[in-house]
Structure formats: structure tokens, C-alpha cells
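hey can u check if this looks right to u? its 140 residues, i copy pasted from the old doc so theres a chance i mangled smth
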Amino acid sequence: MDTRNLILNFIKKNTLAVISTVSIENKPESAVLEFGETEKLELVFDAFSNSRKYENLQQNKYVSFVIGWDENITIQYEGTAEQLTAENQQLYKKAYFLKNPEAKRWENREGIVYFKVTPSWIRYSDLNKKPWEIIELSQF
């Protein structure tokens, strides 16, 4: 299996991630959230416009994620978040709802917005192997 597919398959197996953003005061803030993904290794998530992560993303579009922590396998993911507009959100919402069908209940709630994250760096770590298997991607 090639590296991209190894990483994509692992991301697909997980429904929760920790996202980290930076506040206007340059303080880190993290939250657990549901997410979806695309075949291009992009991540998709929703947020309410009154949430800390939304406010943080309005002034700093750079984010990081940790995906997976069970079974000693994890992904560290860094990228750039882009708020989706009405014109470009349908494809991404489809990927998000395919993985998280229960999240559709928020779709028409006032203040809900959707983001796509384009990766800039990904590290896959399997700590079960000896030596540990560490794979990094920075070309997308």
C-alpha cells in the first residue's frame, strides 16, 4: 500500500479529531470535533459562528489536528482552513455527512458554517512497530 493510501485509510477509520487554533491573544485553543475527509486528504468540519474556533479562524487560518490515538497509531496534521461558501460547500458537506450522518441535524441551524482544510504537512506514526514507523508527507 502506498503512503497516501495508508494515511487516507487511517483518517477514514476515525470520526473524531482534536483541532488546535490560535486566539487573537496568541493563546492555543483545542477542541474535539467530528470531521470528514476527501480523497485529496482535505479535512471538512463544521463550527458555529459564535465558537472560539470560528473566531480564531477569522484572524488565523492555520490549524493543526491530531487524529487517532487508540492502538498507538496517530496522525499529526497541519494545514490551512478555508470557510466554505454556498457555491463550493455542497461537495465538501457531502463528504462530511457521509461520515457523520448525525451532523445533518445542525445543517440548517443559524450560525453553522463549514470549513475545508488543505494539508501542508502530515505525520503518520505507528508506535507498535519496532522501530516505530514514522511517515511524513509535505507534497500534496
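Strands lie at 16-22, 28-34, 36-37, 43-48, 62-67, 73-83, 112-126, 133-137.
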